[in-house]
């Protein structure tokens, strides 16, 4: 499981990233410094996503426009506090239920992690972007390109809200980037 902490880690900061997306050292340093100075108890990352209420009254997952609001950041590049990983992998019955759900649909681990972090911190995620788009070496047939990927994610965001009993995600329009003031 990607979100299980290694018990030998002696740090607060944990970097989660996909091995098929590459970043420059400057982008990594920027994301770390924003996390360290602004968001140690938030998820801080590059790839923002939105969860919005659909016309059918259910929550929907979508990409966000650059510079607009967002309420999640994906684990493709994300700094987080180790305590979030500890809680995500804990024996708390709600977290066990969420992990079982993720295992069943083989999707939405990053969404679940954002819900949990927002629930614990009562704050929004933080987006950090570098001067260029990260090099994406994902194969064209990956899980996120399948026809049912988006449908599954729509279901996840609504089901996680039901498991938690409320919508914990908070909208944010704060964007950190090189040369920006946030």
TrEMBL record:
Q: Which Pfam families match?
A: Glyco_transf_64
Recorded superkingdom = Eukaryota
* Record-annotated membrane-spanning stretches: 69-89
Q: Which GO terms describe its molecular function?
A: glycosyltransferase activity
User: Which keywords does this chain's UniProt record carry?
Assistant: Disulfide bond, Membrane, Transferase, Transmembrane, Transmembrane helix
Q: Boundaries of each Glycosyl transferase domain copy? A: 3-175
Q: Where does this one sit in the cell? A: Membrane
Q: What is this protein called?
A: Glycosyl transferase 64 domain-containing protein
Recorded GO cellular component terms are:
membrane
